[in-house]
Protein 1
Amino acid sequence: MPTRRRLAALVGAAALSLTLAAPATAAPIVIKFSHVVAPDTPKGKGAVKFKELAETYTNGAVTVEVYPNSQLYKDKEELEALQLGAVQMLAPSLAKFGPLGVQAFEVFDLPYIFPDYEALHKVTEGEVGKMLFAKLADKGIAGLAYWDNGFKVMSANSPVRTPDDFLGLKMRIQSSKVLAAQMNALGAVPQVMAFSEVYQALQTGVVDGTENPPSNMFTQKMHEVQKHATVSNHGYLGYAVIVNKQFWEGLPADVRTALEKAMAEATTYANGIAKDENDAALAAMKAAGTTTFHDLTDKERAAWIKALAPVHQQMAGRIGADTIAAVKAATGK
Ligand code: LMR
């Protein structure tokens, strides 16, 4: 784990590279883009697309270095590194903003709040999305875009078809109190853990199960260590692409404009491939045959919805009843 002193040294280096970058002939401005998933995922591919477009549109004035798979930092550390300026860009899952003190983002974790991508986009592409980004400013962070991943599958080594099946299971979650409440509502025992540690924890039985969209489950090979999975689509997992605000606002205006264009196009690309990537990952896991996948019947889905509905009320104080209402108004649900 990087020490604060090491991070401070990196901050100095980042500031220096920015100063030197101003003249046309100077060394490029370096954007370190750190993330925790595999390159072959919607986020991994989106990051590479942004790199290509950013370097093209700035005529090489900017170099984007993409670090996938928690190579530089794990979940919690990467947010600290961004605030300190040791990296300039991240795309954490929306379920990881609570520890920063912006709990309203956990609205995205509420069970069954988004029936599909269309409803989700009414939030991420509308006023609620902007309102949430505004909450990041006093944390030294600027939000640039929302990137899709997908709807989650529940997995374990025993069948997880009905809420009763979760009783006593240790389930890995991201650092979201809403996800903890969701697992508690199912009678499971939630355990917060960094993404990079999940495979091993499943393999060794430190936890019994987890939840993730198929693209993450497949690219982390979780299907090799989970015998059962239910395609429950009970919750959504997506990202906010965020930057260190001081770094972003300190960029020459023309460079920032070019980067905004690159981000807009990378966002269209990433959000355009997310569903297909998840469908393909699910098909690949089914073909691998190591996990038995179950689709919920209507009756089973109704039981899940009933078991998880109280979480909305329980978490209203934490997320903000106004934020939940704004999301529901935007989606029309
Ligand atoms: C997780 O920790 O399960 C996800 O947030 C990983 C990711 O970034 O998709």
Protein 2
Amino acid sequence: MANLWGGRFQGAEDEQMKRFNSSLPLGKRYWKEDITGSIAHARMLGACGIISKDDAESIIEGLKGIMADVESGALPITEGEYEDIHSFVELNLTRRIGEAGKRLHTARSRNDQVAVDTKLYARHAAAAVEDKLDALCTALVKAGSDNPCLMPGYTHLQRAQAVTFKHTLMAFCEMFRRDKKRLNNAVELMMEDCPLGCGALAGTTHPIDRAMTAKELGFKQPCANFLDGISDRDYLCELVFDFAMILMHLSRLSESVILWCSQEFHFVTLSDAYSTGSSIMPQKKNPDSAELIRGCSGLVYGSLMAILTEMKGIPLAYNKDMQLDKRAFMPALDDTLMCLEIMRGIIATMTVHPEAMKKALKSGFLNATELADYLVKHGVPFRDAHEIVGKAVLLCEDKSCAIEDLPLEELQKLCPAIGPDVYGQLDYERTIRLGNKAEML
Ligand code: ARG
């Protein structure tokens, strides 16, 4: 394995230790960010006269060449050969351009290098998640608009009041809208301070221009503190928390979808594309897609615990524990992206059954609150109205009928204020247009 160190070593590294220590398997995902950071660093070294303009130019050209070759596949990032992505880039650079390549790491440490790579990667990762959140919301809005029907709304998983199917789906859009904002906030905070130039932990004796690299890489300013700059991973914790929150929301949506496609509800049918069958029961069509999303929420919560625990005992400044941040962050990112995509597919392809929803509305007295509202509008105090309607429900239970099936005389026996217009107030399609309920349409 080619290393960036070794001068003070006499013995060889244990083979298993090499594998244990290598961060390349996940770190190679930073290849673009590592090269981008290195280009900014080389340009600054040249501008500040720390290396010659010629060396800076050939380093930048060499790095661009590596970028193009990794992109095209001509230069594979082979695991086992390099300790980390920084070693891969620097050693390949020197192989290409010779002596000048060895000057790239002047006034820099892998500690500030990986800190800047991680931030740049996290920024792209958050943007990718935001795109998937948008795509899912588009699918939710479309499914809601394409199916303008009423359904039972639930509290305690008991039928409560009528709501529109669209309003139900839009509830999830609100959660995802907040998730997007949360990601934006985390990225904004993260991109305030650039860690490049903090060195290993104590800056450098070279007259570097940290403001120049910070600006080129899209940060507001250089970090104020070297020790914190290289060892800050707050933003990863925050982003993994944001992913965990997204998965919590996705899991709630999954749970609804799973209930809706059960025979007991039959509000929706999932497309074959997002269902699977049973190896023994030929009739089964299972909502595995939604169940897997619900299951992934547990894994992402695990990543959040992992990264918080990873960081809590680390003395200043860099410690190798921090290299494991990738093993918490990247699987959580992958699961989040995958679950958002799958959920978009589930929603975009499911069939909605408005008749089944309508039928479910008919039993369970979901218009009881609306009847109480009617009484209030006829001068009955709400607490009394609540009591009267409770009696009406008891009567209906006795007769096995709905409130709107009771004849006017029966209703008037319960409360003389009731007139024939009560049936309008008991009609779901009509009451959904009253008061602020119309906002659900
Ligand atoms: N390989 C490390 C990582 O990917 C960066 C190197 C940190 N510095 C060090 N002295 N080992 O997080």
